Amino acid sequence: MKIHQLKRKVGDLQMRAWPIQHWIGGVRLREGKFAGGEVGILRTVDREGNRLKLTIEYEGTQPGGFLEWDPPPKLENVEKVLRAQIGKPVKGRGDRGGLNESRH
To answer: Which of 9, 59, 73, 95 has a 20 to 30 A CA-CA distance from 3?
Structure first.
């Protein structure tokens, strides 16, 4: 499974979890620029409950967004894959695999 295949049920709809559509903070309102989608460089990946908070660097700002999906895969698996991508462009991170449940 790949990150861009993660889904979340919202009401009766099945929504794609990736890419994060709206990065929060670091918005340049005067210029009308908003960070959204696969932009910037991935800087942090942190757990917040049952979701991951990601921070990117984009045009001199550091907006963040939440990645939340319905399992599988486990939170730990997605976190591990994304942490390995810190410092790299967000574009293309959704094509990363390795999210299969670990076998014991």
So the answer is: 59
Q: Is 98 contained in some domain?
A: no
- Domain containing residue 23: 1-62
97: in domain: no
The whole model's pTM is what?
Answer: 0.84
In a domain, 67, yes or no: no
CA-CA-CA-CA dihedral for 98, 75, 42, 35, to nearest 10: 120
Cα–Cα–Cα angle for 37, 41, 43, rounded to 5 degrees: 110
* Collapsed DSSP state (helix, strand, coil) of residue 70: coil
- Measured between alpha carbons, how far is 21 from 17 in angstroms, rounded to an integer? 9
Tell me if 100 is assigned to some domain: no
